[in-house]
Amino acid sequence: MKNNTILHFHDFLFEYDIQDGLDDMGFEKPTPIQEQAIPIILEGHDLIGCAQTGTGKTAAFLLPVLNQMVLSPTTNTDTLVIVPTRELALQIYQAFQGFAYYTNITSQVVYGGTDGISFEQEKKALIHGANVIIGTPGRLIAHLNMGNLKLEHLRHLILDEADRMLDMGFIEDILKIIGKAPKNRQTLMFSATMPPKIRTFAAKLLHNPKEISLAVSKPAERVTQGVYMVNDNDKNALAVSILNEKKLPSVIVFTGTKVKAKQLERDLMRAKVDARSIHSDLDQKEREEVLRAFRSRRLPVLVATDVLSRGIDIEDIGMVINFDVPGDAEDYIHRIGRTARAESKGEAYTFVNGDDRRKFKRIEELMDMKVQVMPNPEGIKPLGNEVSQGPKKHGFKGKSAHRGGHNQGGNQNRKPR
Fold first, then answer.
1. Are 309 and 161 in contact (CB under 8 A)?
2. Angle 183-56-14 from CA coordinates, rounded to 5°
3. Can you spell out the DSSP letters for 64-88?
4. Contact between 255 and 402 (Cβ < 8 Å)
5. Of 162, 182, 220, 259, which is most buried, counting CB atoms within 10 Å of its CB?
6. Distances (CA, A) of 42 to 25, 51, 163
7. Contact between 131 and 69 (Cβ < 8 Å)
8. How distant is the alpha carbon of residue 318 from its chain centre?
């Protein structure tokens, strides 16, 4: 773009139908990733972007691609967005519906775990050439093998959360899908981290790409962080104590396994904390129902495995609890990035057992800061030689709850609102 100063979304000079939608949605000042990426994409360059969750990268790639489709309409599948999880696919699909509200651009989301009716709806939309397809690798491969997905006219290929897809073992599926797309296309890759394997992967797919890298090693300054040094068998009791004291309307607790998620849900419910867990044992309808309840504030506490640590756009989370220390230091940033969005404030607490001390130290080194050690509530012993600091809080008494208990289908984007 000729004008390098972007102060408002109007400065991008989007087509009227797109700008009208942005005005209705209250989009005013672009985020840094949007300010940098949108002009590059509008100019037709391939792009590799490194930015953590919550930075606005969904709009950064959807808006310029949508603008190009408005300028040059097609009846074919023009854009394919590949993502690691069904939750992220739905989030991007819903965002696209809002951005394209005043246009005639059609879209379809495809992901596994749905019934036969949903699959037939996907098939119909794909065969009729929905302009934008947003999907997970496994489901896209299924449609590709059946001849439903046609990519010979594809102009835009977008890979979101590319690092997560590689970690989940999707590389072969992705390469197979991309092998059916024209080489003369615009390819955009977004990743929260940029390890060597991502750069190698990008070199295979992108042509002379521009690169944007926003720092991922610092959490939002408005997040109040704390760490509790605690034994594993006291973690459930600690979570009960914190949640009963805080009583916030929106809290996510991240656990390392689905077994822990289920157990914590039972203990929280037993302690009269309104909580539900979300994990791979739930079918898609159940997972969507839990997420809808959480988004609408009907459910104050969501216990989740790592599937939600990235990619889910849920606003105004008051607190994040890392029940287990994330395996990847940068994943800590993404987890606590669920809170303190926009101009809001948030809290993030991490439970550290004896084996995880070194792991959490690496997180502190990544952030170049020391996280405050919080005093354990009454009745919960400090870990090892750690000494609680300050007055006792929360007032949780007695034995730990852990020891005391058992232990969317197609939408052709026609005025979706």
1. no
2. 70
3. HHHHHHHHS--SS--EEEE-S-HHH
4. no
5. 162
6. 21, 19, 24
7. yes
8. 17
Dihedral sign from CA coordinates of 286, 290, 295, 296: positive
Give the position of tokens 């999880």. Answer: 85
Tokens of 198: 């991502």
Give, in order, the Cα–Cα distances in Å from 332 to each of 6, 53, 324: 31, 11, 10
Q: Which two tokens stand for residue 275?
A: 């909580």
Using DSSP, how many helices (H) and how many strands (E) does the chain show?
Answer: 15, 13
pLDDT in tens, 158-216: 999 998 898 889 999 999 999 999 999 999 999 877 888 888 999 989 999 999 988 65
Q: Which position has the token pair 């400090």? A: 382
> What would the 3-class secondary structure string for 270-326 be?
HCCCCEEEECCCCCHHHHHHHHHHHHCCCCCEEEECHHHCCCCCCCCECEEEECCCC
pTM: 0.64
Q: What is the DSSP string of 174-195?
A: HHHHHTTS-SSSEEEEEES---
Q: Where are the beta strands (DSSP E) in 230-274?
A: 251-254
Task: Please say whether the dihedral angle defined by the alpha carbons of residues 259, 262, 267 and 273, taken in this order, is positive or negative.
Answer: positive
401: Cβ–Cβ under 8 A, 6 or more apart, which residues? 236, 237, 240, 267, 268, 270, 271
